[in-house]
Amino acid sequence: MKPELVIIEFLQVAALLGLAPAFAGWVKMLKCWSQGRTSPGLLQPYRDLAKLLSKDVVLAENASWIFRFTPYLVFGTAVLAGGIIPILSIDLPLAPTADVIVIVALFAIARFFTALAGMDIGTAFGGMGSSREMMIASLAEPAMLMAIFTVSLANRSTSLSQIVQVIYSGQSVIRPSLAFAFLAFVLIALAETGRIPVDNPATHLELTMVHEAMILEYSGRHLALVEWAGMMKLFLFVALGIASFAPWGIAARGSFSALPGALVYMALKLGLVGTVIVLVETGLAKMRLFRLPEFLGAAFLLSTLGMLSYFILD
Amino acid sequence: MNSSMTLLIVLGIPLVSAAVLAFVGDRKFAPEINILGSLATFGAGLGLALEVYTNGPMLAGGKFFFVDAFNVYLAVLTSFVSVTTALFSRRYMRREREHGRVGHVGMRFYHAMFQMFIFAMLLCLLTNNVGVLWIAMELATLSTVLLVSLYRTPTAIEAAWKYFILCGVGIAQALFGTVLLYFAAEKVLGEGGDALLWTNLSRVSGSLEPTVLSLAFVFLMVGYGTKVGLAPLHNWLPDAHSEGPTPISAVLSGLLLNIALYALVRCKVLVDGSTQTHHAGNIMMGFGILSILVAAFSLLRQKDIKRMFSYSSIEHMGIATFAFGLGGPIATFGALLHMLVHSLAKSSIFFTVGHASQMHRTQEMARIKGLFKGNPLVGWGLMFGVMAIVGMPPFGIFASEFLILTATIKDAPLWTPFLLLGLGVAFAALLRRTQSMVSGDVPDYQKPLTPANVPVILHLALVLILGIHMPAFLNQWFHTAVELLK
Amino acid sequence: MGLNIAAQISSFLAALVLLSAFGMLVQKRINGLINLFAWQGLFLSINTALVGYFAGKHHLYISSLLTLSLKVVLLPYILHVLVDRLKIRKEVESVVNIPTTMLIGIALVIFSYHLMAPVRELSTLITRSTLAIALATVMIGLLMMITRKHAVTQIIGFLALENGLFFAATSATYGMPLVVELGVALDVLIAAFIFGIFFFHINTAFDSLDVEQMARLKEED
């Protein structure tokens, strides 16, 4: 294994760890601006994390090992996923070991354990959050996989690095299937990362929570890890979308010198996506829980249409 | 007189009459204009038939029109029934007007659309272009939709709506079938209007792609089959035929169904030429038997008189479809005869039914009684009409059904029990009902009226004559048509 | 611009037509439905004009113009006016719930693809892959007519079906002969007139446009 590749991998993971809170801070900032409030600043998430890391953990008496283990697991899977998705370069040594389906599975493991942790202590809100999260997941997973399949079909591989390479070699053209898959992916990303219109990340009303309800009981470093993992999940979904649909800027194979440029491109794209997220969040209202099947059904519909139109039209 | 001129007259008169009646349809002399227009059309139709009879099939209007034994026979039938219906309509609609069921605008609309409907049907029959066939069929439907809802009652509107939607959907399928047909035709005949001409298509039908044509036939079957009223696409028929004014029910049952079947048969000839199998025929047979059985058993449950006779129309159209599907000279001859006599008998039944319902101010059979005593012409007319329609000898329908049955026993014996079952059940159901309506004492709510004698007597007489002795020219005519449909 | 690009753009527009068909299937508001129908007509007319340009069939320009004026301008306008005059409540009920309808729609797309496979093999046109989409649009229009309970929605389903048929004609054969196209357009126009009149009659007789009300003509036992 060449040392440059290890360095690239390391750099990418560091970028992920370091920049995910900044991205979350950016989104928060834009949201405050759009609502006419003063924002707490771009670096606030860092301060929050630092604060949490220095605090004590308060555990319930009947918390099992799952409760203590989950934050580390969730954090670990996020970092691992970050090692596979091409953010800065496609030259990742871990890339051949895992493809897009593995990424989906990693997120699924994280979600599974979070849901268990939510139910672990036996509080009502935790259980409620877990069941809601699982309902959303059961609808979003098939749609996600369909969308991924469509992209893989169009680019003849399920490995993300491969996909980016194919796009670079200029074989992809305006395909309606990719357009459908993109639309579906956007809807699913909103669902998976818990943004409006699926779930309000800034809510303090427990009855409206989905993701927050599951982590309600966490404190101290556990909460820090879970929060950080949440920010990384948002970052990674955006990176996944960028890699699948608009990867220009990511350093190509064997191109070490393009890394700084890749960093700049990444920052720009993330900034743009953050703006779009905020536009969506301020423009839409959170949907009733029982309308979520329609929303996710539409996502499934779009992704299936994408796959079908690949066969029918291409 | 040259043939294009005759054709022009045949098509032009209804169109002109429609335009005229749109303005004067509510005056006193409007029904007379209606009758005269139809009479003129009938005359021209006879002239056309004579030409075809002596000179054989002909093209006119630069290949746009095609007249052969098959369609000219239906054209003459259509114009004839339109004359008699116009005669009937004169007395009937005057009554309706007096009862206040139709207003000024309604009468103008009714008369204008009546002629427009005749025009559309004749265009459908005489055109050579399969696409224009579709257009004319749709036009025929559209011109009668609002007539079905003429009385503006909730049930009438419901019936018209169902008619519109279900027939619209059906005919859309037929358009898709036509597109597929054009697709196959284009490969052999090149692009442009010529590829849709039936004469060209039948000439090259052997080289049309079989897979495409069988697919097209499925759509055409569903589409035109809906218009024929074949089960399971028949839901609109009992409603539409029972809710409109009786003259409209008569022409819908007697004429439009025939025309839709004509369209279907034309397409079948093309498909047969292409696939060289009995595939299309089998489909038609299946639908035909299904319609016969569904209609026969539904006849038992009816309470409304017009609805009952509409189901009878479905049954008879099923018989004709079955016979056309069976193929072969005997069955086809039987089918052609069946179209003729059913048309005459059914419209005559509707005439008497119309009068009966006017006399009792209701269409419920339980309330209609004592027709023999109350109004002998209506009573006996109905009785004979029903005897004719259930296939009793010596009426014409017996002859056609007998022919079809013979052909079935010979060529497709396994279908015979179903055919007999349907015919038997219909026989029993219709006679039982009619019996209770014509016999008995005159109820006190029955109002007297002078019926339109001529249409009823004329139709029934024709049906009787055709049953007893087939005139030689008609025999010849049918044989020529059978040849064309091989 | 090569034929390949033309085929791609045509496929793209076909996908948009299908998407608008699905959009109509799940849309609950009548005004939204009418607008989606207008969009579908727009995509169709652009596609027709494009095919006409690339295949050199100039009569398709006329068809495109006809579609544009009829289905993008005139019919939606008439429908909007009707909806206003009749003071229709803007919500639309359906027989089956929306996710199930979507699934049935997807099944119909797959079904039409299989059905049209033999025709696709035989065709030599640049638009041959869009024939399956056209049939799917027809079927989805049909589905819309079956699963909705409101008269206006049923009519829009019917018009969407008509759109699919027009699309099929363009995909399979570069459009029917002009005579037929004109005739079909005429029929659509007359049908539009008739259903306009119908809505008023239904509204007057039933005081609503709920089709469920019109279920009295049944067999009695």
Overall domain count of chain A: 1
Biggest sheet descriptor of chain B: 2 strands, antiparallel
Helix content of chain A: 55-70%
Distance between the termini of chain A: 39 Å
Strand content of chain A: under 5%
DSSP summary: helix tally of chain A: 11
Q: Which class do the helix and strand fractions of chain B yield?
A: mainly alpha
Order of helices and strands of chain A: HHHHHHHHHHH
**What is the average of the pLDDT values of chain A?**
86
- Which blocks of ≥5 consecutive residues of chain A have pLDDT under 50? none
Strand content of chain B: under 5%
Beta-strand segment tally of chain B: 2
- Profile the largest sheet of chain A: none
Helical amount of chain B: over 70%
Structural class of chain A: mainly alpha
Q: Gyration radius of chain A, to the nearest Å? A: 19 Å
DSSP, total strands of chain A: 0
Mean pLDDT of chain B: 87
Describe the structure.
The complex is a heterotrimer of chains A (314), B (486) and C (221). Chain A is mainly α. Helices cover 70% and strands 0% of the residues of chain A. The radius of gyration of chain A is 19 Å and the shape is globular. The termini of chain A are far apart. Chain B has 19 helices and two strands. In chain B, helix 3 runs antiparallel to helix 18 and helix 10 runs parallel beside helix 12. Chain B has a domain at 278-486. Chain C has helices at 3-26, 30-55, 59-86, 98-122, 130-147, 151-173, 178-206. In chain C, helix 1 packs antiparallel against helix 2, helix 4 packs antiparallel against helix 5 and helix 5 packs antiparallel against helix 6. The mean pLDDT of chain C is 82. Chains in contact: A-C, B-C. Chains B and C meet through helix 5, helix 6, helix 8 and helix 9 of B and helix 4, helix 5, helix 6 and helix 7 of C.
Secondary-structure blueprint:
The complex is a heterotrimer of chains A (314), B (486) and C (221).
Chain A lengths: L2 H32 L9 H11 L10 H20 L15 H21 L3 H32 L4 H9 L7 H17 L18 H4 L5 H26 L13 H25 L8 H22 L1
Helix pairs in contact in A: 1-3, 1-9, 1-10, 2-9, 3-4, 3-9, 4-5, 5-7, 5-11, 7-9, 7-11
Chain B lengths: L2 H22 L5 H26 L2 E3 L4 E3 L1 H31 L4 H23 L3 H19 L5 H36 L8 H6 L6 H19 L7 H8 L2 H30 L3 H21 L5 H22 L2 H32 L10 H4 L1 H14 L6 H16 L4 H23 L14 H16 L3 H13 L2
Antiparallel strand pairs in B: 1-2
Helix pairs in contact in B: 1-2, 1-4, 2-3, 2-4, 3-4, 3-10, 3-13, 3-18, 4-5, 4-10, 5-6, 5-10, 6-8, 6-9, 8-10, 8-11, 9-10, 9-12, 10-12, 10-13, 11-12, 11-17, 12-13, 12-17, 13-15, 13-16, 13-18, 13-19, 15-17, 15-18, 16-18
Chain C lengths: L2 H24 L3 H26 L3 H28 L11 H25 L7 H18 L3 H23 L4 H29 L15
Helix pairs in contact in C: 1-2, 1-5, 2-3, 2-6, 3-7, 4-5, 5-6
